[in-house]
Design a protein that fits this description.
270 residues
Amino acid sequence: MLIDTHCHLDAAEFDADREVVIQEAFNNEVKMMVVPSVHRNNFEAVASLSETHACCTYALGIHPMYVARSQLADLAFLDQAVAKQLKSDNPPVAIGEIGLDFFIADYDKASQEYYFVEQLNIAKQYDLPVILHVRRAIDDILKHLRKHKVRGGIAHAFNGSRQQAEAFIDLGFKLGFGGALTHPRALKIRELVSTLPLEAIVLETDAPDIPPEWLKNDKRNTPKQLLNISEIIASLRHIKHTQVTEITTNNALEILPNLAKLFTRPKVIH
């Protein structure tokens, strides 16, 4: 069994064939998919996916790239949504996707940091892990995590240094790896995937984004690609594929405690 710890199944790219995409992933050993939100406008969509698909769960948060189109009231709305959903039969497994992004043009660092810290506080309040967006901002994120301690989580699409990786691990985080590692020229990521403790790694696709090498001419990534991604990790580490699937799945269940509870939740698998 594989767990895709990060895919945006609610995205418009899947509107035409979402049911097929989910079923194909399930048929290719991906038995659970975590769908993070990015803005208050899709909180309901990701929660609804989890309601209707036993192989989906979700996280709630405001993505740093959506901070510019958010309002401070959205943080209160997030707090209320998390509190409400935690009392339901369909609780979120994390606060996410949150973090910092210093790659986008004309970013407002102060605003991003404010939203990030406030969401870390929400995660701490409800004792939830966080799913982090860390593009070009790893050191700043680590600084805030040391000051505002949460119960851990996942550094999504990790592409930092070995030292930064170890800093996340020391803070109780797992590192998310996906399609980027399938590109032969991604030497730094491949080195990390090959040498970091396997117990520190979780798998993800970030579908519909970050397509693997074999989809380079396709504009859309899908969760079913996780099977081939995991096989490449096994090849890079010179271990059996079953070891990768077993350990990374256990890692995901460990870092997202609410996830394990969802396997027995009565829902219809489409």
